[in-house]
Specification:
Blueprint: H1 2-42, H2 58-67, H3 69-72, H4 76-92, E1 94-97, H5 105-118, E2 132-136, E3 140-142, E4 147-149, E5 151-154, E6 159-163, H6 164-172, H7 180-195, H8 199-215, H9 218-227, H10 238-251, H11 253-259, H12 261-271
């Protein structure tokens, strides 16, 4: 009797909320269907941002403006998005200095900016496989393969490891196609794409296969041999090839586009990169 009375008393009040929840759930389902359709047909995400609210401190913003050329090429809208992503990256990742290295804001901003530049075309940009940024003063001994490295991505420890000396050198010379930061972040992005099934990962995998198919074409093989455009290390394996490809894409885009236009096109589609004249 009491349960019947309660249902009679409260059901009229609850019904509108229940209808609203059902309608919202159905609307969200339709939006997801449309989002997947859009991504499949146009080969890019429907949108890249839910919202933009984080800002860098004045001192960190000055570092970005002074030292990061890519940021200054962006529109005002994209600058706000980039700031948000860099601030988010710095707040989410733990930076650790090795061999008594003191981590500075300059290091934090530049490492975050390289990672955010590489993922700027993606909706999923946070590098879920990276929790720690370990920075050594110079080349470091890796326990993974018992050798000295300038950079390393360790998925087991969820760590991106960098030699600051080599990171700075790669960053300072912007057209030599050697950038250890871009190289290691690409390794993390590629493994994430292999593990996940989000829209960015699906698009990454699709364009990656398109690039590999290009490499099997006789005319492309001949041009690779003739031009020797990509450094020899790129051909160690497919993972190193993609990491080197990212370095060339960002550091010499015009040459890359001119010499290997189809590979450049697929790389651009893979990263959904339509910013700063790329």
């Amino acid at each position: 009797m009491s349960l019947f009375f309660l249902s009679e008393a409260y059901a009229p009040w609850l019904a509108p909320y229940a209808y609203a929840v059902v309608l919202l759930g159905f609307a969200f389902f339709l939006f997801r269907v449309f989002e997947n359709w859009y991504a499949a047909n146009f080969d890019k995400p429907l949108y890249r941002h839910y919202f933009v609210y984080k800002k860098l401190s004045d001192s960190k913003l000055k570092i970005l403006e002074k030292d990061f050329i890519f940021y200054n090429k962006l529109s005002e809208k994209h600058k706000k998005q980039f700031q948000h992503r860099v601030a988010q990256f710095i707040s989410e990742k733990k930076y650790v200095g090795r061999d008594d290295l003191v981590i500075t804001d300059h290091m934090k901003v530049l490492v975050a900016a390289i990672g955010c530049m590489l993922s700027f075309g993606r909706k999923n940009y946070s590098y879920s496989l990276i929790d720690f940024i370990l920075i050594y003063p110079a080349e470091f001994f890796s326990t993974v393969n018992k050798n000295y490295h300038k950079g390393e991505f360790n998925p087991r420890e969820k760590a991106l490891v960098l030699s600051w000396k080599d990171f700075e050198e790669g960053f300072a010379i912007s057209n030599d196609n050697l950038n250890v930061g871009i190289h290691e972040f690409m390794h993390a992005m590629q493994l994430e794409a292999k593990k996940n099934r989000d829209l960015d990962s699906i698009r990454f995998a699709k364009q990656f296969q398109n690039i590999l198919r290009q490499l099997t074409k006789p005319e492309v093989k001949d041009q690779l041999d003739r031009t020797e455009y990509f450094r020899a290390y790129a051909f160690t394996n497919q993972y190193e090839f993609m990491a080197v490809l990212a370095e060339y894409f960002f550091e010499s885009p015009q040459d890359f586009k001119r010499i290997f236009p189809k590979i450049y096109f697929h790389t651009k589609k893979m990263l959904n990169f339509n910013f700063a004249d790329y």
